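User: Run a structure prediction on this.
Assistant: Running it now.
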Amino acid sequence: MIRLALSLTLALLAAAPLRAQITVQEITSPGGIDAWLVEEPAIPFVALELRFLGGTSLDTPERAGATDMMATLLAEGAGELDSRAFAAATEALATGFRFSAGRDMLSVSATMLTENRDEAAALLRSALAEPRFDADALERVRARAISGARSDLRNPSSIAGRTFAEMAWGDHPYSQPASGTEETLAALTRDDLLAAHAGAFARDRLFVAAVGDITEAELGALLDDLLGWLPETGADLPERATAQLSGGVTVVPFDGPQSMVIFGQPGLPRDDDDFIAAFVLNEAVGGGRFGTRLMREVRQRRGLTYGIGTGLASGRFGDTVQGGFSTDNSRAAEAIEVVRAEWAQVASEGLSADELEAIQTYLTGAYPLRFDGNANIAQILVGMQVQGMPADYIAERNDLIRAVSLEDIQAIAARLLDPEALHFVVVGRPEGLETTTN
């Protein structure tokens, strides 16, 4: 694995112009399952990534946390194997499975050695198609989830995130805590988990990527064996929504020396024609690194925080531009005003030529280094599919970044950034701040 990562990195660094040299095959299995494949036979293993659209957004309010708990329990026994036996079988095969649920999708990650790939795939199929949801495992996972939910109620960052989500999304599923609340988790039954399983796994929402020592024919046969049991359709997906944010400040009292601040406004979808320009703009303004606009103004010049960053939270069912930082209670009001002032300045003036050149150099230089192993490449490929990108995006991405002009930046800054719509959720005892709306 180390040798493969090193050889791939060296090959990428030698490329001219610098770009990720990945050959992606778009295949369809005999059973009709579409997948992206990168063959890399140098090391005898394969990384497989599956995504099922929907995720925790499929939960109803009274069953919040069901999909997350269901995903966790996939590793707690399947078929004839209880939790201990399943863990032993996984270890014996030297394979690795990871199951997780996010707000947009349910994720399955697997690594399999070539020598026992069929046995590992059969074990994974059992986990996906025949989960046990045994009572002892359910109660163990429930107790852990409830403990986490209780901790979230005492965590300023979690409180800020939940408050922001509720304000932004109203009664949309995005407003729900993905891992549930103490009340919803306590009420979940095995039937609820079976229902979450039936709703989440289906062909109509499946994306697949594989990287490693496997051919097109081998992958097609593996996928048909692994996923042939899937029903054609699952639970209805949520409708797209627009963030219901208006400008202002919401203060949530919380004892402590610091305030946690989350801020944001409505964003734009990934398929927007100006998304690449928006991405470049955001990385220059709030990419979270030294030299970016907000880091320079809020931390380096004024010492108001240790770190601040923003991102384009462009989800499958709704979009925001969102950021966060923490600061001393006595300086929260000042920090918010600096952020708002920078937001307004960039909206009216865009970036300087030096700022644009610097961020383009960084983004194009760093991109190939992300492709540093089979698992990472598979994750990138499946993410591209979910976001609707073409397979040749990898080869074209850096050219797209370089093509963004100052005029493009000015246009998207004026269109996207709206200081009057920027809302700040402050969890703490900020001095001189109170809840306001624009």
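The chain has two domains: 14-227, 248-437.
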